[in-house]
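Reopening closed ticket. The problem is back. First fold of the pair:
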Amino acid sequence: MANTPSKDHRISDQEALRIAEQTDVSPRQAKELAKEHGKAKGEQEARKTKDEG
C-alpha cells in the first residue's frame, strides 16, 4: 500500500517549527500530531488547539 500525500505522517523539523510558530503547540507536539493524524490533519489539530486556547 503506497502512502498518499494526505496520509504522510512525517514532517520535517522546519515544518514542525513553522506550525509551532503559527499555533500554540511546540515543534514536538506538531510532530506528534502529524504522526497521529497525518500531515494535513495534524496541522488542523494544531490550529484547533490555538483556537481553543
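Second fold of the pair, where the issue appears:
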Amino acid sequence: MMDPDLLLDSSLREALRTVPPQECWNPGPMRASGAALLDAAPADHSGVDLAVHHINDDAGLEVRVLTPAASPRPHALILSVHGGGLVAGRARYDDAWNAEISRRTGAIVISPEYRLAPEYPYPAALDDCLEAWTWALHEFNPSMSLIYGDSAGGNLAAGLALRLRDQGAIGAVDALFLIEPVLDDRLDTPSMRAGINTPVWDLPNARASWAAYLGPGQADRYAAPARATELSGLPEVFLLVNQCDPLRDEGIRFAQNLTDSNVPTELAMLAKSCHGVLGMAGVGIADRAREMVLGKLRESLDTIRRRKGGIVD
C-alpha cells in the first residue's frame, strides 16, 4: 500500500507546512484561507500583457487573457482551467503560472473564472468553460489550440473535450493536457482508498468535493470523465500523475482507456511527489515538474505546427 511517509520527497515536507488545509466540506473557510495566502502573493506578469474580459453579464463570467508582449497576435491559444476541488480557487491565483506558460510557449492563455460548487453545482462550471472556449476561438481565431487543466481543472478540461467531441466541435482542439486530474466520482481505486490522510488531497476531501459538485444530480461522462466508455475522437493527450496522490490510479486508468480508444497518449508519473506539486515554491522536485510541463507544452505546439505545415508567427 502507498505510504507517503516512505515515498514523499523530503524537500516537499517543509513546503507542505505552508499549504492551507483543504476542507471541501466547509468551502467558505477554505476559500478564505486560500485568499489570505494567495491574494497577497505578487504575480510576475513581466513580458506578458494581462486583460480581463466580462463575456456573460448574466452569469458573471470573467476571463483573464494573458498575451506575450513580444507577439501581440500569436497563432496559439491555451485554455487554462484552475483547480480548487471544484469548490474553491480563483483564476487570478494562476496568473503567475499562466504568464509563464504564455512567455515560454508564445501562446495566448485564457483562464475562466468559472462558478463554484456547492452554490453552483454541475454543470455550471463546465458551461462556463465551454462559453470561455467558444468566446476565445471567436475572439482570437487561433491556428492552434490546446485545453489545459490542473486537478479540478483537469476534470473540467476532460469534460469539456468530451462535450466538444459529442457536439462535433472537437476539431478545434489540437491537444489536451491533464495535470493530476480529478476524473472519477466512484472513489474506488487502490490509491484513493489508501488516501485517508495523504498530503494536500485525500479521500475525505474527494468525497466532499464530489458531493458539492454533483449536488442532487448523478454523474455522467461530462461530470466524471472516467465514466466515459468510449474516448475515441479526442485529440492527443498528455496526462501527469503524482506517485503519492490518491488521484494517481484514476489518472493511470484514464490513460489506459485513452490508449484502448486509439487516442495518442503520453502518461508521466512524478516520483516522490504529492498533489499540488506544481504550486510548491522553492522546491527542487516542483521546479523540475514545472519545467517538464512547460517543455511538453512547447513540444506539443511545435508538433502541431509541423503537422499543420508550419505556422509563421
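Update: turned out to be a display glitch only; the data is intact. The first helix runs from residue 4 to 7. The chain has a mean pLDDT of 93. Please close again.
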